[in-house]
Amino acid sequence: MPLYQKQELKVYNSLSKMKEVFAPIQEGFVGMYVCGPTVYSNVHLGNVRTFMSFDMIYRYLKHLEYKVRYVRNITDAGHLENDADEGEDRIAKKARIENIEPMEVVQRYTLDFHNILQKFNNLPPSIEPTATGHIVEQIELIKKILEEGYAYEVNGSVYFDVLKYNEKYHYGILSGRIIEDAVHNSRTLDGQSDKKNPQDFALWKKAEPKHIMRWPSPWSIGFPGWHLECSTMSTKYLGEQFDIHGGGMDLKFPHHECEIAQSVASNGVQPVKYWMHANMLTLNGMKMAKSTGNNILPAEIYEGTTDKLNKAFVPAVVRFFMLQAHYRSILDFSSEAIEAAEKGYNKLIQAVKTLSLLAPNDTSSFDVSAWRQKCYDAMNDDFNTPILIAQLFEAVKQINLIKVAKATISKDDLQLLKESMQAFTFDVLGLENVDSSKGSDKLEGVVALLIKMRNEARSNNDWTLSDKIRDELKDLGIQLKDAKDGTTYSIDS
Amino acid sequence: MPLYQKQELKVYNSLSKMKEVFAPIQEGFVGMYVCGPTVYSNVHLGNVRTFMSFDMIYRYLKHLEYKVRYVRNITDAGHLENDADEGEDRIAKKARIENIEPMEVVQRYTLDFHNILQKFNNLPPSIEPTATGHIVEQIELIKKILEEGYAYEVNGSVYFDVLKYNEKYHYGILSGRIIEDAVHNSRTLDGQSDKKNPQDFALWKKAEPKHIMRWPSPWSIGFPGWHLECSTMSTKYLGEQFDIHGGGMDLKFPHHECEIAQSVASNGVQPVKYWMHANMLTLNGMKMAKSTGNNILPAEIYEGTTDKLNKAFVPAVVRFFMLQAHYRSILDFSSEAIEAAEKGYNKLIQAVKTLSLLAPNDTSSFDVSAWRQKCYDAMNDDFNTPILIAQLFEAVKQINLIKVAKATISKDDLQLLKESMQAFTFDVLGLENVDSSKGSDKLEGVVALLIKMRNEARSNNDWTLSDKIRDELKDLGIQLKDAKDGTTYSIDS
User: Fold this and answer.
1) What is the DSSP string of B163-229?
2) Is the dihedral of CA B318, B320, B324, B328 positive or negative?
3) How far apart are CA A314 and CA A434, in angstroms?
4) What is the rounded distance in angstroms from the CA atom of residue A174 to the CA atom of residue B219?
5) How far is A286 from chain B (nearest CA, A)?
6) Are the beta carbons of B21 and B8 closer than 8 angstroms?
7) Per-residue model confidence (pLDDT) at position B357
8) Nearest in space to A113 (alpha carbons), one of A17, A29, A36
9) Which is the most buried residue in A52, A290, A358, B463, by most CB within 10 A?
């Protein structure tokens, strides 16, 4: 019997605004789509949190023995500067400013994105499709929406007809927006737009002469609207109806609302069974923004190159910090908070290592099976990682008591505890088994100890020992250098 | 004055079969296209050599202060099992066998490819376009070739008309094949093919019902021919005429020959100024092949998991080994050869480190400027890395003589030597500054030294010192454990 049949997972569905029992469309299989980055700048820490949340979800689903197809796209065309279908393509703009080809921008920031996500121990998705890789499919979807009567062409551009759609379906079903209010409150169009109504959104835009990313289509040489790629690629790789669609909270409207409208308009069914949204990350209590300087880049944390932190922190500590909050809660990043997380992380990893040194007893004073189910209960309650971590620390307490013989554990329970700690800490939470201090510190410390011993030998006029330490270190490729203000060393090759 | 104006680079052009002075189409800029992998299996060591050769070329061009746009594609559709346009798509076949979506195959092996190439310190190309990302552009190119009269449609497939093309142009210009001989010698078609002549090749293939990778086109729902993607993408990102086209020797015919034909047929000009081909890698004197077992995977070398080698070798040693041969020579990989390369590599890296310890003299007994020009001369002679490496070892010899005061170097020459060694060893050859032995060896050695000192203290009944060593190591997180057969240690977290 697969694990998912023994553990009842509940998931908060942004569509129903309720926690629901998770039951995928096809038993044993999960199709999950998560909106990926627009690759025109370095990935920011808030994005890292979003993708880490869905990585944790992906890991837990796999742990429950679901076969998961996880699709996360790369937006490499079509994402304009603002949501009203105006402004330049973000990638093309960056390319124009730097005087390079747009696909060079895409390459640079896709590599950065992969690199950063790998640092934080995120598993790669099963498929990572791109918008430019699905121009043909996007054009086919536009044709279908036009055929169904929910879109119109004007001057080579095609727009989705939101009001027409809303007559039969519900535009605003996800975000809770009421389209009639929006129509009532919105200003009239200034005449420069081809849209019938300001709520309409572009499926295809005719390219201005200066627009460098362009493809032929039945309507014009142009480019697809941003919302279209996700409908196209989720349908292609997961089917017209699939299980989970995730993304950052900020994508709920208009992006995800438009995705629903496009899918429903083209085939009449709700595309997604469970919509899931990850909450945002703030820095020192305020929204992160490059413009205000209240910003921190992921690499600045582990390279220790930001004045917002007193020291560097390994990526695993950052991951631990983020998973200490529930994915649907706002989380505030600060120097104090990450320092506290480092202490907790080290304590947890230390306990996992201690586990291998424990000797079993005849009986257990700690009910491991009950504890283990509490860990599952936490995760089954909409992936409640803070509660899971609290449970792991309950185990840490017991491990440290067993170590000093103030508690006991049987052989079977010790085995179960080891397996469970391994599974939740590394497989599910994805925390890496690394010390948060640098490995070279140990060598430094040991060499410093030898230098100290040599200094003592020298002050005792024990030149034999003093020379011996120097020579043996030299044989190991470590050169001591005596100077007025003390002894330093250098390490060969 | 940029460096490329001071150093005259000559490049062996496979098209003219001569070394030619390198003069890019637009002064100061180089457009370079290299055929990348078909991502349906793990990248093999021969491919690693090919991509490393072009990485070295890319690095040297950048070193010469050219602005290089380096495009290397990913073939994720259209590459059939054999060159006669027959058989299954390689990626689709793998997907069918493993019962997964083709793009899952693509994702897995693209990640593997990136990971392996990064291990061997290859720089990422400027753009890494995919075949599926350019279906629209490929269809447009087919239309153009049809319009020019060099292709024909049969039953929804489109074929390039090689004989018609050869009436006006020269099919075989690169590979030296004479099409008339081929026509004369080839068997007649068996009637199952739609082709007019066996030499013709597919531009578009109508998809069989079982073919899972398919796109709409004016001719049929189908997929592009393999040769087409490279013509399409090189033109899109580098223009109708560009400077360098590279690839493995095995791609010369038919792949590159077909690329030339497609480009010339569509716009009448030779697309590439310098064709460059890297030679193959053999293993113990024989062709590498999975089927015969005479095969070694890149990761097996640095993980030490092949019975073909006595130990593991760091990727930088493999890189050094490969660059010891000229990129146009066949190179044989063997246990003895890589062990010898490791010694050479370590000697080179050691000398680079020694450089920083050298003290300058008033005069030089070593003519650094002349030596430096010899390094350039080697690279300028069609990227002759074995000669460059021989020159670097001339410098190693001098560095070691200066170290023991048997040779002298002036301050300015020392500076020039440092800069040149840095530039050629790390920037151009891309050798990483790593020791081929593990870093943890040093810590092991130093701790062993302390254990030895503690044992001596104990045999002298100096318990104060003995305890002190144990306690101070413990504070550093290193636990000593005394047992009957000696003292061992463990390192915390």
Assistant:
1) HHHHHHS-TTTTT---HHHHHHHSPPP-SS---SSTT-EEEEEEPPTT----B--SS-SEEE-HHHH
2) positive
3) 8
4) 41
5) 35
6) yes
7) 82
8) A36
9) A52
Contact A401/A361 with Cβ under 8 angstroms?
Answer: no
What pLDDT was estimated at residue B186? 59
Q: How many CB pairs under 8 A join A and B?
A: 111
| Cα–Cα distance, B218 to B222 (Å, whole number) | 10
**Joined tokens for residue A154:** 């004007």
Residues B91-133 have pLDDT tens digits of 999 998 888 999 999 999 999 999 999 999 999 999 999 999 9
Q: Is A120 exposed, middle or buried (0-12, 13-18, 19+ CB in 10 A)?
A: buried
DSSP state of B405: T
**8 Å CB contact of A473 and B133:** no
What pLDDT, on a 0 to 100 scale, did the predictor assign at position A445? 77
Mark yes or no for CB contact A446/B445 under 8 Å. Answer: no
Q: Rounded CA gap, A380 and A374, in Å?
A: 10
- Give yes or no for B455 touching A (CB within 8 A): no
Tokens 């796209």 correspond to A73
For B108, which residue in chain A has the nearest alpha carbon? A126
What secondary structure letter does DSSP report for B293?
Answer: T
Distance of alpha carbon B92 from alpha carbon B79, whole angstroms:
10
Residue A133, chain B, CB below 8 Å: the answer is yes
Whether residues B103 and A127 touch (CB distance < 8 A) is answered with yes
B411-422 vs B335-355: helix axis angle to the nearest 10?
140
CA atoms within 13 A on the CB side of B213: 33
- pLDDT band at residue B439 using 50, 70 and 90 as cut-offs: very low
ipTM: 0.84
Q: Does B435 touch chain A (CB under 8 A)?
A: yes
The full DSSP string for A290-338 is TTTTB---HHHHHHT--TTSSS---HHHHHHHHHTS-TTS-EEE-HHHH
Instruction: Return residues 13-72 of B near A (CB < 8 Å).
Output: 69
Q: Do A215 and B136 touch (CB under 8 A)?
A: yes
Looking at per-residue pLDDT, the higher value among B155 and B85 belongs to B155
CB proximity B478 to A under 8 Å? yes
Supply φ then ψ for residue B208, to 5 degrees: -60, 160
Radius of gyration from C-alpha coordinates of chain A: 28
Closest approach of A473 to chain B, Cα-based (Å)? 7
The confidence score (pLDDT) of residue B184 equals 65
CA–CA dist B312, B324 (Å, integer): 19
User: A348 is written with which tokens?
Assistant: 């947890």
Residue with the bigger pLDDT between A368 and B467: it is: A368
Per mean pLDDT, which of A350-354, B96-100, B137-141 is the most reliable?
A: B137-141
pLDDT tens, A434-463? 765 544 557 777 888 888 888 888 888 989
Q: What percent of chain A has pLDDT over 70?
A: 96
The whole-angstrom separation of Cα B444 and Cα B437 is: 12
Percent of chain B clearing pLDDT 70 (strictly above): 96
Name the residue with higher pLDDT: A441 or A115.
Answer: A115
Choose from B442, B447, B466, B488 for mutation: most chain A CBs within 10 A: B442
Tell me the shortest Cα–Cα distance from B157 to chain A, in angstroms.
Answer: 18
| Nearest CB to A349; choose among B128, B130, B493 | B493
Q: List the single residue in B104, B127, B346 with the smallest CB-CB distance to A104.
A: B127
Measured CA to CA, the distance from residue B247 to residue B261 in angstroms comes to 17
Q: Lowest mean pLDDT: which of A159-163, A376-380, B172-176, B466-470? A: B466-470
The neighbour count for residue A43, using CB atoms within 10 Å, is 22
Per-range mean pLDDT, top range of A86-90, A305-309, B204-208, B286-290: B204-208
pLDDT at B438: 45
